[in-house]
Design a protein that fits this description.
208 residues, mainly alpha
Length: 208
């Protein structure tokens, strides 16, 4: 899965083609599933999976996301773009896992890391990449738009927690940044995730 800065960058890139009207709501939604990790390294699997409407089986996960969107959209008048951003996060997680993560794990294997090391080293590389993403000029637009977003309670995530997490992501996030150059990840992997979203039709899952 991508980090929150990468999710914001993905949302900014794809907002126009998805017909997003309220980019602030959409970008806020695009990081909100990860709010359950606020104040800790990572929430329990049960909590994370509930927030991401997730199952270990990816086909089942995709079906759950479709059903959730179908159920929630009629009740989301005025906050459709927040809901779409929330689901966008989950579809991007899937696209990243399909298109980028296998290559990242293969690269880490060439450095001598084994299976037990992969998760920790994956996040270490993402922390390196965060510095690149957050230092790019367009990230200031991500921060500006996200700050304007309006949350709503969703999938076990309260408005209060979402806002706390948003403020942490756009105003701080220093504990998730390493002052080192990425060994593998680049802007090309963000674009590869966008291409995977389009190729697999995940972008169409967010139609109004």
């Amino acid at each position: 899965m991508p980090s929150s800065p990468v999710h914001l960058e993905l949302a900014l890139i794809m907002a126009e083609e998805l017909g997003v009207r309220n980019k602030g709501d959409f970008l806020l939604g695009s990081i909100s599933p990860d709010c359950v990790n606020y104040g800790m390294e990572q929430a329990s699997e049960e909590v994370r999976y509930a927030a991401h409407i997730r199952d270990r089986d990816y086909d089942r996960w995709k079906a759950m996301l479709r059903e959730f969107y179908k159920k929630e959209l009629p009740e989301s008048e005025g906050s459709e773009d927040f809901l779409r951003g929330y689901l966008f996060h989950c579809w991007c997680d899937i696209a990243w896992d399909e298109a980028v993560q296998p290559e990242l794990f293969e690269f880490l294997g060439t450095l001598g890391y084994g299976y037990d090391d992969m998760t920790g080293q994956k996040w270490r590389e993402l922390y390196r990449f965060n510095g690149v993403v957050m230092g790019a000029p367009e990230y200031q637009e991500c921060r500006r738009l996200c700050a304007k977003g309006r949350p709503r309670a969703i999938a076990g995530c309260s408005e209060e927690l979402i806002l706390k997490f948003r403020d942490y992501v756009i105003n701080d996030y220093r504990d998730k940044v390493l002052d080192e150059k990425p060994l593998f990840l680049s802007g090309g992997h963000i674009l590869k995730t966008v291409r995977q979203m389009r190729a697999m039709g995940y972008d169409k899952e967010l139609s109004l």
